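Tokens as discussed.
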């Protein structure tokens, strides 16, 4: 522990840290000291403005996360209803496929820099080259949004164009169901889709400003 504040001790500790036997001991000790310091700060700050702010922030996060989970369950139930009404009807994703082509054309202007994004879009185009069920197309849209949200591929200024692919897929679903005489399923899907869009706008435009993005939460304080 003295190595944290005593330069002379720090020199000796550095030497021991390079040994097989010494390093684990030093690591455990340093972690223990750090935990003890944080714990003591926490106990001393109980009832203070700092601690109250942190507690309030954590409560806000808990409420927000419960809302995200509950609204997700409601959205799934709405989509499940539309999928059930659609039955085994398959939809040709013509608009979505064309939207993918449009984004690939833009990304190809700098093909080397955007190689990963172009590769992903080409695979997506392959998936959209065949007729899909309502559930399949919906899951593809969900996967695309999660891929962007996680940062697996970075589209930068073209992200809006990529998200437009999902809008085109929704248009394909509505058109396909209507053409097949499944107007009730098309209406149910439309209701679910609008509610989902509003949910995502609320999450990204409001909740994430308070609690941070998924896997990158802001501290309670």
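Sequence:
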């Amino acid at each position: 522990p003295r190595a944290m504040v005593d330069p002379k001790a720090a020199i000796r500790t550095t030497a021991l840290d390079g040994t097989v036997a010494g390093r684990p001991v030093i690591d455990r000790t340093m972690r223990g000291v750090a935990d003890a310091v944080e714990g003591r700060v926490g106990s001393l700050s109980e009832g203070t403005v700092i601690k109250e702010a942190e507690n309030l922030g954590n409560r806000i996060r808990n409420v927000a996360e419960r809302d995200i989970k509950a609204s997700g369950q409601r959205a799934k139930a709405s989509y499940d209803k539309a999928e059930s009404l659609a039955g085994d009807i398959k939809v040709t994703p013509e608009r979505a496929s064309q939207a993918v082509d449009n984004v690939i054309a833009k990304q190809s202007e700098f093909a080397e820099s955007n190689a990963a994004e172009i590769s992903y879009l080409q695979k997506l185009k392959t998936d959209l080259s065949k007729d899909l069920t309502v559930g399949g197309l919906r899951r593809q849209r969900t996967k695309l949004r999660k891929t962007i949200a996680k940062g697996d591929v970075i589209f930068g200024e073209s992200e809006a164009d990529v998200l437009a692919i999902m809008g085109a897929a929704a248009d394909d679903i509505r058109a396909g169901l209507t053409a097949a005489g499944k107007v009730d399923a098309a209406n149910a899907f439309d209701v679910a889709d609008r509610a989902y869009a509003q949910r995502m706008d609320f999450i990204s435009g409001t909740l994430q400003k308070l609690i941070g993005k998924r896997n990158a939460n802001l501290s309670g304080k």
